[in-house]
Amino acid sequence: MSSITNWLMVAIVATSLVGNVFAIQCYQCESGQNSKCGLRFEPEESMKIDCSSSKPPRHIRNALDGQNMEATGCMKQTLESKLGGIYIARSCYFGDLTNQVVGCQIDPNDVLVYLDRCDVCTSDLCNTSSTVTPIAIFILGIYSLTRWLF
């Protein structure tokens, strides 16, 4: 592979990563307040949020102290109520994408639910289902496209 191709690939990936990290849009809703946010997701324009204008939830701010406070992705949390029932929460994700312990945690004051599953993704409006596309697949796609073109 030529050095021009290598530099082109690095530039494309870097641009994509910067765009995804700092200007990501996600769906934000909770199925407890909006039935269209549930397992059968029916997206609406009003559910879209620009994560660059959001702040991390209060309960994870201390854990993120000293780290990047910008949204790094989108998430879909599947919560189970201790009283019965499943709830879905979609929102911006804050924290390390490789270690989701902090970013996926729920508010400890909410004693009626527990986290069943947390899916994190990094492209715009990607938190529609439990099938999320990790950034590695995106990078692999760009790499493959670059190899095919050059």
UniProtKB/TrEMBL annotation:
It is a lipid-anchor; GPI-anchor. Keywords: Glycoprotein, GPI-anchor, Lipoprotein, Membrane, Signal, Transmembrane, Transmembrane helix. Residues 1-23 form the signal peptide. InterPro entries: QVR-like (IPR031424), Sleep_regulator (IPR050975). The keyword Transmembrane applies. The keyword Protein transport does not apply. It is found in: Membrane. GO terms for biological process: regulation of synaptic transmission, cholinergic; sleep. GO terms for cellular component: side of membrane. Pfam families: QVR. This is Uncharacterized protein LOC101887684. It comes from Musca domestica. The lineage of its organism: Eukaryota, Metazoa, Ecdysozoa, Arthropoda, Hexapoda.
